[in-house]
Amino acid sequence: MSQISAAWGAGPDASYEAIAERFRPLFARIREGAIHRELNRQWPLEQIQWLKHSGFTALRVPKAYGGSEATLPQLFNLLIELGEADSNLVQAIRGHLGFVESVLNSGDPRRRERWLPRLGEGQLVGPAWSETGDAGQSEFSTRLQGEGEHWLLNGSKFYTTGSLYSDWIDVGVSDANGETVAATVARDAPGVTVLDDWNGFGQTLTASGTAQFHNVRVDAADLNREQRFRYASGFFQAVHFATLAGIGRALSGEVAHAVAARTRTYSHGNAPRASQDPQVLQVVGQLRGAAYTTGAIVLKNAEALQRAFDSRLAGDEAAQDEANTLAELEVAQSQTIVMDLILNATTVLFDALGASATLRPLALDRFWRNARTLSSHNPRIYKDRIVGDYVVNGTPPPFQWRIGVA
């Protein structure tokens, strides 16, 4: 079934359906076991391998290196479809998607030639940037020290989402001068330990816990001192939006199916079956509308990010500044709306069903837990202020930000 015939609206372009058809059977297989994995805390190791072998993780990689050379709108629309199957998987590869984007934007041809073949083969890169405790905003406690012709990496990271499933880990460190450096090390390198200690109540299968590094040897070729690509903040946040849009589609579909199958109804209802009760149908329609609207917003954000990506090729610094500023603003002014729509839907869905909908085997609570967890990333309370400051005072949005002790 095409996206149009499913009433989700047109995809990003005329070629989208051909790309999506490659992956929809895979999405269906992933969705079959999603609730079982959720209830039993079963890692999606096999499903991650399916994504790698299918070429999904190499969607943005140029065709010359084995990828599909997909546009950002195509990528984000596919992420919505994957998120509908299992939201854990989109977040689990979020860091990888950002790493691919950083390589595509790299001004270092040696870095591109080192990494694009690996990424085209399906090798997966997980992130290790955030630190907990008394870590500072300006420097990482994770350090990089020189030892002869090599470097040694020491420290600990948290929120290393997906690194447990990855072939490589991209680590944010501070060097001896306090400068930020990215060091990419093999997941199975001596001294690397990734723990399954993520204990959040949502997105429980994303492997977002601790990674530890003890005297891990790093080759100079695997150090990157470039700044992150300019639209990185908007890109990473928009991946969360795509995941939320996928959650919206999944919950609206599961509720519609449950209402259609429901034979019990209330004596003070409006019809002999829930499927004929106009008030129940109204709730189902609200859920569908929230999912539709969120998906449409994600596509508009992806178009803005694509313009930011394309602007680097024009050789016009002012135009590049404007494209990146506008992309960040489009994402920022979407954040509160997207999150409110889906968070509300994850609660309202129970109004269309009876108390039996709270039984654990249905796992309908996963939608709220997962959406609430995603909506806690990059606090939305700041976004409306940032947008208002721009439109009133012309203050540009912050492109990069760090969390830690000020």
From TrEMBL:
Acyl-CoA dehydrogenase/oxidase N-terminal domain segment(s): 30-122
Record keyword Oxidoreductase present: yes
Top-rank taxon: Bacteria
Keyword Oxidoreductase appears in the UniProt entry: yes
InterPro entries assigned: Acyl-CoA_dehydrogenase, Acyl-CoA_DH_C, Acyl-CoA_Oxase/DH_mid-dom_sf, AcylCo_DH-like_C, AcylCoA_DH/ox_N, AcylCoA_DH/ox_N_sf, AcylCoA_DH/oxidase_NM_dom_sf
Listed Pfam families: Acyl-CoA_dh_2, Acyl-CoA_dh_N
Keywords, alphabetical: Oxidoreductase
Domain annotation Acyl-CoA dehydrogenase C-terminal: ranges: 242-377
Gene3D superfamilies in UniProt: Acyl-CoA dehydrogenase/oxidase, N-terminal domain (1.10.540.10), Butyryl-CoA Dehydrogenase, subunit A, domain 2 (2.40.110.10), Butyryl-CoA Dehydrogenase, subunit A, domain 3 (1.20.140.10)
Family to which the UniProt record says this protein belongs: Belongs to the HpaH/HsaA monooxygenase family.
Matches recorded under PANTHER family: FLAVIN-DEPENDENT MONOOXYGENASE, OXYGENASE SUBUNIT HSAA, MEDIUM-CHAIN SPECIFIC ACYL-COA DEHYDROGENASE, MITOCHONDRIAL-RELATED
Protein name: Acyl-CoA dehydrogenase family protein
Species of origin: Pseudomonas typographi
Source species taxonomy: Bacteria, Pseudomonadati, Pseudomonadota, Gammaproteobacteria, Pseudomonadales
